[in-house]
Amino acid sequence: MGVVSVESILVFVLAAVAVVVVVRWVADRIGLPAAALLPIVGIAYALLPGPNVALDPDIILTFVLPPLLYSAALDSSLLAIRRHLRTVVSLSVVLVLLTALVIGFGFAWFVAGATLAAGIAVGAAAAPPDPVAALAVGRRVGLPPKLLTLIQGEGLLNDATALTILSVAVTAATGAGFSFPSALGLFLFAAAGGIAVGVLVAFAVRLLSRPLSGDPLMVNAVSLATPFAAFLIAERIHVSGVLAVVVAGLIVGHQRPRSTSGASRLQTSAVWRLVDFLLEGFVFLLIGQQLPAVVRGLAKYDTSTIVIAVAISVGVVLLLRPLWLILTQSLPRSLHTWLGNEGTDADDTDGDQTPPERPEEHRNQRLNGREVVAMTWSGTRGVISLAAIFTLPLTTDSGAPFPDRDLLLFCTFVVVLVTLVGQGLTFAPIVRGLGLRANETDQARQRNEARSASVEAALATLDELEAQQHDDIQADVIDTMRRQLRARLARYQGRLDQLREADSTELPVSPRYEAALHVRRVAIGAQREELLRWRDAGRLSDDGLRTLERELDHEERLLPDRPARR
Q1: Cβ atoms of 127 and 329 closer than 8 Å
Q2: Cα separation of 151 and 392, whole Å?
Q3: CA gap 118, 393 in Å, rounded
Q4: Is the sign of the CA dihedral 427, 428, 433, 436 positive or negative?
Q5: Could you list the residue range(s) of the whole structural domain that residue 528 is in?
Q6: Which whole-number Å values give the CA distances from 103 to 97, 414, 552, in the listed order?
Q7: Is residue 420 a contact partner of residue 130, using CB atoms and an 8 Å limit?
Q8: CA-CA distance, 170 to 177, in Å (whole number)?
Q9: Residue 339 — pLDDT band, cuts 50, 70, 90?
Q10: Three-state SS at 401
Q11: Which of 101, 224, 370, 394 is disulfide-compatible with 434, CB 3.0–4.6 A?
């Protein structure tokens, strides 16, 4: 292939950005996840004449995976994942291992010429769900926080499990030998080392963030570098880079409210949203473009062999997940106690609450039938599966071709398409049909209780400050602030009374509140227009306009996106 000019690369990147933006716009309008539509667009492009972009697994695993995982970990709840740790580990470690083994033995028994190691390799690649599509749909349709936590926690941890299993399978398939004790030792060392590196990197980030917290740009620079640093350090000492990135992100995200300023958090959040949008769009578009390369290698296989291999891969992925969920949720209570307790439905949010009685905790920690169906359908696969399977070597240590490499690539591609497109496009209707929705009234009640508590803490602090000060000006300022806080507290308490009287799980509509939101937005719009008139008339500089606009932007950002949401 000839040298591609810089202009051609720029044109292709701009075209890809345009496609991602348009597909995202269409997806928002029709209510479907962009992650499921982009691969379809990629396939359509791949079938047209012209160049395609080949998926480079090293680039995906080094430059794309770390920031996506780190961003997801920053937005996750360390406390919520810890409360549901047993289920998260069950899905992200045990189920991934079982999926790889079942597919491996299925290939060894039913696919002509396939080896156990090659089957485990494709099983490890196809095993880890990519939660992007499921989370996008789940948040839009109001999936309960417990299920969102499980989907997110599973997606954060399963990649490390799958990639470690894949490396062990490749080692066996290339002729270096295989033993269960050594494989288990390698897995435990990689996991423990990855956790240790993640903790150390998070500690280093915390030390850096404190002196830099006053400069959002420097905080952003450290934040963008953190996932790559964690990944590279872990990979250099041959432990799990993926797990290092996830652990670092969870700890940094948990400590961020104390270690960074408000301005830094606002800017960092905006930067990571943009990174997520572009990287996710590119990788899902890239998935569809791999179709020609994957199909070209199938000419040497019988149709029956291809059908059997695909049936085993897709069948195990689709059937083993619900079976495993049903089995683990049907365990006796004594075994649940031995495995470790989890939080209840009341603990799905991040607030500290008094735990209920133990029998109720045991009953609520399990998934019911509708939740099992939702978790089953959330197991969409994505770019990590394709990136993992493309890392298979071309030859073994003896120089022979890697066994059934092209067939393994095709099976993984089909699994990704079936789950990402099939399940991704139907997940929202299934969730709606199941009637699974978060209890918005309880969530709003908790938020307003926390708001009230924070205002009461501020009032108590003002009382202490007033006792220490004797200056008349200070007393006047304190009295003004106290009146403002009391008015705010009265508003929160009034909203709480309304929420406590509500019978349904839907937020009660408050015409007065919606009218207040409308009036405030209109007022902010009028302020902006007047500032623009001043600028256009030469009475206000552009620097002054930007400063005043930023004040209005922050004020508008405090308003909820949905008028009825409090």
Answers
A1: no
A2: 28
A3: 11
A4: positive
A5: 512-565
A6: 10, 14, 57
A7: yes
A8: 10
A9: very low
A10: strand
A11: 370
Residue at 352 is within a domain: no
Does 304 have pLDDT greater than 50?
A: yes
Residue type, 187: F
Longest dimension (CA), the chain: 91
Task: Please state which of the ranges 93-97, 355-359, 378-382 shows the lowest mean pLDDT.
Answer: 355-359
Kindly state whether residue 204 falls inside one of the protein's structural domains.
Answer: yes
**Given this model, what pLDDT does residue 210 score?**
76
C-alpha count within 13 angstroms, C-beta hemisphere, residue 363: 5
Indicate the number of domains in the chain.
3
Neighbours of 238 (CB within 10 A): 12
21: tokens are 């933006």
Helices (H) and strands (E) in the chain, counts: 26, 0
Both tokens of 549, joined, read 């606009």
When the pLDDT of each residue in the chain is averaged and rounded to a whole number, the result is: 81
Q: pLDDT tens across 506-529, in order?
A: 666 677 777 878 888 899 889 989
pLDDT tier for residue 124 given thresholds of 50, 70 and 90: very high
Distance, in Å, from the CA atom of 103 to the CA atom of 122, rounded to the nearest integer, reads 8
Dihedral (Cα; 255, 256, 257, 262), 10-degree rounding: 170
* Whether residues 490 and 544 fall in one domain: no
